[in-house]
Amino acid sequence: MQLGLDSKRALVTGASRGLGRAVAGALCDEGASVAVCARDEARLAKVAAEIGATAFAADLTPKGASARLAQDVIARLGGVDVLVVNTGGPPVGTFEAVDDLAWEGAVDSLFLSAVGLVRACLPGMRAQRWGRILIVTSVAALEPHPGLILSNAIRPALHGLVNALSREVAADGITVNALLPGFTATERLQEIGVGDDQVASQVPAGRMGRPEEFAALAAFLASEPAAYITGQAIACDGGLLRSI
Ligand code: NAD
Fold this sequence. Notes:
This protein is an alpha/beta fold. The protein has one domain (9-236): 3-Layer(aba) Sandwich (Rossmann fold). 44% of the residues lie in helices and 15% in strands. The protein is built from 8 helices and 7 strands. The protein has helices at residues 18-29, 41-51, 65-77, 100-128, 149-169, 187-191, 196-200, 211-221, and strands spanning 9-13, 33-38, 54-57, 82-85, 131-136, 174-181, 233-236. It has a 7-stranded parallel beta sheet with strand order 3-2-1-4-5-6-7, with helices on both faces. Helix 1 packs across helix 8 (211-221) and helix 4 (100-128) packs parallel to helix 5 (149-169). The structure holds nicotinamide-adenine-dinucleotide.
């Protein structure tokens, strides 16, 4: 299948490792011009060199940071055709363990950063009547996980944004979808001590996902042939979600 991404310009955030890095790599492999963003400048520069992308170091949590990043990328690449919104997961904790400051931080990093990126990239996509917006959320947005109150509560708001925005921009050739990773083998999961043996019994596929499997879904949704898929929340989870 021809994905038609070789002339496209993409911005992938949270791309110094894990899912973001895999998605950026897949888009580079398809011939797209890819801008990658993350906080750690040295690490990001190394990743960018490895996959053939351009590095834009930034922390997307402070107010206005995501819009500034997108404007810098648009100025350098001449536009953004494919926007992949991805950031680190918010702190873990139950409701009683999380204070107002943590709620504000999670809203800024997970939700408002996405709004800023979309707001900055949308006018160019509308003008050229082509665009792909992918927002990485989590299976926890559909079926809450114990002890992840911030993720459980804030990510569903992104699904509301995806569905409502998709309707506003569909006639301009722009698709907007949410991608929901299930347990996927990234450094983040290693850091929080989740191993293959722990997930094997919970996941029908009997193993963790690989970042490349998630990236393949993202590359397809970013592609020309995916033009009629919009407003969806699509999981890559080995059958974990039970809801119909
Ligand atoms: P990760 O922690 O390995 O990578 C996150 C990336 O985002 C890194 O490049 C990091 O530098 C960057 N980042 C974090 N905060 C940032 C900020 N404020 N500004 C700019 N960049 C920032 O995470 P991952 O495992 O690749 O997961 C990516 C997303 O998917 C996260 O939101 C995570 O919660 C979610 N998710 C992951 C899984 C999984 O199993 N890996 C499952 C469900 C949901």
